[in-house]
Write a structure and sequence with these properties.
6% of the residues lie in helices and 55% in strands. With 298 residues, it is mainly beta. The longest helix has 17 residues.
């Protein structure tokens, strides 16, 4: 569906402010709505609806998306109607609160509501400069990082202090949230000290809760005859959820003294971009490893 290409000048500043406000509240997570519906209508004289009634749902071929802040204080439902309509409904909790099942009274236009609750129904080129209203959340279910699984809410909005109101309902029933990416690194108790090139060979496994490309870096440190031997390593691993992936790396000593048999400290740092949520998963591990003398064959 072709997205709207023209936005009225009167709405440009509020849209920009909304984007800035979401960023300030934390990294936002956008997701499509797999099962949902939004309905609203207005009294005669209501500026937003023009006194009309509107219904949108995924079942009817309309596109609904939801965007929520990671700290669960804000959510926005976007509507792109199959007929070319475009709307958004914003709900925000009061300062230092999260959106939960209750009624939020004395709401004002988001994101200029101060410390109280925020509300804004706008679209199709129409928006309120000032508004008052309230919204009620009957049910809400959150997943990680602002993933919205369920929402059953209603709202009432008055523009510019008028008596006429827009009233609507929002229903969302998304799939259960995918798991957050978590990494777990193991370091084998034994490694190898290569007698030819002086490198330390270390290994272990990486486990992940969802498929991910893992970048791994680390340091091997050994002390022999009061000399500190240290080298770094890096490698990459394709990790499949539920199956530990083996990793092997070689640390090249930075000086002229090679790694030798005996104990060494191994530090690892594994990182991967979460495929479902913003941010990275990080896992750090430290272990004492026994390096065995290793003579490579030709």
């Amino acid at each position: 569906m072709k997205r709207r290409s023209v936005v009225l000048r009167a709405l440009f500043a509020p849209v920009l402010a909304i984007a800035l406000a979401v960023t300030a509240a934390g990294t936002a997570s956008a997701q499509p709505v797999t099962d949902g519906a939004v309905e609203f209508s207005g009294d005669p004289g209501d500026w937003i609806t023009g006194g009309g009634s509107y219904k949108y749902s995924e079942a009817a071929g309309d596109d609904l998306t939801v965007q929520a802040s990671a700290n669960r204080t804000f959510l926005s439902v976007g509507i792109e109607g199959a007929n070319g309509d475009w709307w958004s409904v914003e709900l925000a909790a009061p300062q230092n609160d999260v959106l939960s099942a209750k009624t939020y009274e004395n709401a004002h236009r988001y994101p200029f509501q101060g410390t109280g609750p925020g509300l804004d129904l706008s679209g199709n080129g129409r928006g309120c400069n000032q508004l008052t209203g309230e919204f009620t959340i009957r049910e809400i279910s959150w997943g990680p990082q602002g993933y919205l699984q369920k929402l059953d809410a209603s709202f009432v909005q008055h523009c510019e202090g008028g008596a006429a109101a827009a009233r609507g309902t929002i229903f969302i029933n998304n799939q259960p949230p995918p798991p957050e990416l978590k990494l777990e690194t193991t370091i084998a108790e034994e490694g190898k000290a290569n007698t030819v090139n002086g490198k330390a060979l270390v290994n272990g496994t990486i486990s992940c809760t969802t498929n991910a490309a893992v970048q791994m870096s680390g340091t091997v440190t050994q002390v022999k005859n009061n000399v500190i031997i240290r080298g770094t390593f890096s490698t990459s691993v394709d990790c499949t959820a539920g199956t530990p992936a083996a990793w092997t790396a070689a640390a090249d000593p930075t000086g002229t003294t090679p790694f030798q048999r005996g104990k060494a400290e191994v530090l690892t740092r594994s990182t991967a971009q979460d495929p479902n949520y913003p941010g990275q998963a990080i896992n750090e591990k430290t272990a004492i490893v026994e390096l065995k003398r290793y003579v490579p064959t030709a």
